[in-house]
Amino acid sequence: MPATDSHCWVGVDLGGTKILTGVFDANLKLLGTAKVSTRAERGLDTVCERIERCIREALESAQCKPAQVRAIGVGAPGAVDADRSTVLFAPNLPGWRNVPLGRRLARALDRPVVVGNDANVCTLGVHEVELRAQPRHLVGVFVGTGIGGGLVLNGELYEGASHTAAEIGHMILEVNGPKCGCGNRGCWEALASRTAIYRRLREAVDAGEKTILTDWLGRELEDLRSNELRKAWHHGDKLVRRILLQTADYLGLGIASLVNLLNPEVVALGGGLIQALHAELMPRITETARARIMPGSERALTLLASRLGDHAGITGAAVLARRALEAAPARTAKVKRA
Amino acid sequence: MPATDSHCWVGVDLGGTKILTGVFDANLKLLGTAKVSTRAERGLDTVCERIERCIREALESAQCKPAQVRAIGVGAPGAVDADRSTVLFAPNLPGWRNVPLGRRLARALDRPVVVGNDANVCTLGVHEVELRAQPRHLVGVFVGTGIGGGLVLNGELYEGASHTAAEIGHMILEVNGPKCGCGNRGCWEALASRTAIYRRLREAVDAGEKTILTDWLGRELEDLRSNELRKAWHHGDKLVRRILLQTADYLGLGIASLVNLLNPEVVALGGGLIQALHAELMPRITETARARIMPGSERALTLLASRLGDHAGITGAAVLARRALEAAPARTAKVKRA
Questions:
Q1: A-B contacts (CB, under 8 Å)
Q2: Can you tell me the distance from the alpha carbon of B272 to that of B252, in angstroms, rounded to the nearest whole number?
């Protein structure tokens, strides 16, 4: 075991298209990162090898040796049994069902590994590193292709009866609203994610409305990213502005529901859309939400855009690793040796 | 202090129109009840005197002496600071703002008194007495004039940052839906409470639709209670059936949102509407909810109608009294003597 002042934690953000890894010192200061594509379509073995490669590259960039790593945390997309570090089901990782990812990586890397749900892990990162574990109750809202969430209640990550809590993207906000990827109608993520923005833009373009985005990306608007939405906003594109403000309203309404339900000290927003557009959208999101929150809960609330941005996942995964090892060394060690 | 086998707990359910009190033995078996009207319009002093009277009558009916009472719990409508047993604000009790109800009653009755929010208290009663404290995570949904709720998370009542959590009636379910008493649009209680049923019935009658209810109650449908809705259902009244099934669907949709968010073991429904109509509505509520809950959370869920009925409030208030005294005798004693 290396001396305390030289050990490090590794956080892995496993996504459907890319893997991002960060190496952190004992105080969770980021020392180095690496990124590789996931290649999920090539199957489980390939993804695991690519996670290992990404960790090696991050350690090199941080100038750390593998022996300095005390533990590795992974945020994985989908339903995760955190007690067993097993991915139960991941819609964006084809074929992943009941994958004992923690045990597998621990064996390959000879280090303790813990795995959690990606949005939970992001929320943990915001709570412990950005907010210094101050709020007793925090709701994390991560807006990208979908809307993911995490809940810290009474200072601890809340995972529910079967590790599937915080599916905030599937709160119903409009009973007869647009179809969601989950099969229901009017889910929050069908109304307020980048997918929802894309759908509204396509419908408007099909109806003959104009936007600079078709000049940049073609009529199909393929490969639309949050950065192009920001550029179009600042270009004064009326359609984009209207649709983004409508989306901000839906974000505010969903946040109001969450706050009326959970009365947290802090709601922290993150994810690609917020990272790219927080300056443009947060005032409207805040205004819409606050107007609909019950007075007692409204006064208690801080609503903010996380500054961790892209690094929320790796930061939270490193927190997860540290917590697991400090709280229950026996459990993590068992994962490693099993 | 009386011997353990002869002491009792008192639970008070303080409502806007009536006060119900129950006296319970050491094992929370109900020994006797009493009911008086609240007379909220006559102000705070009158209401406090009537609570005292109701407690005396309940003790008589239970054949208990005041000295046998170890503590009194009160469920009060509105926002309650449970740490200080203070009613912060109660929309149905005119003039009640920052009322130190616990201290006041403790002084008058010379017994420890604790006060909590009514829907929280009902949830506590269902959790501890009906469900024998089995579920780690329970959502209580009480449907009457409005929709109140309570959350037991990790085995403990969850009250949020400022004691205003679980305002489940003000989750937004339909962005441009009907106006709610809170000023917003499309809140759950504007879509699925008895108030919502009444509004739909009135609109239908005004539009010329027929219902047996106008024969029984007149065109204004004043004094419509849940029991009349049940009678009209069994009379085969088509309008009433259609509106009740629509309401059941909205109840199911809101429950789906709550379960996707909190992944509880149990959702327990109660309140006047459910008490009167559980046989008629629970199948439809359950079907609609389960179809919209994410698979992992759906498998973990038991959805039931509480059998405590009208007694959920007094039972939970007695639980509150017992918990407060057993968990923190110093705190409750302070309330008593302050």
A1: 150
A2: 17
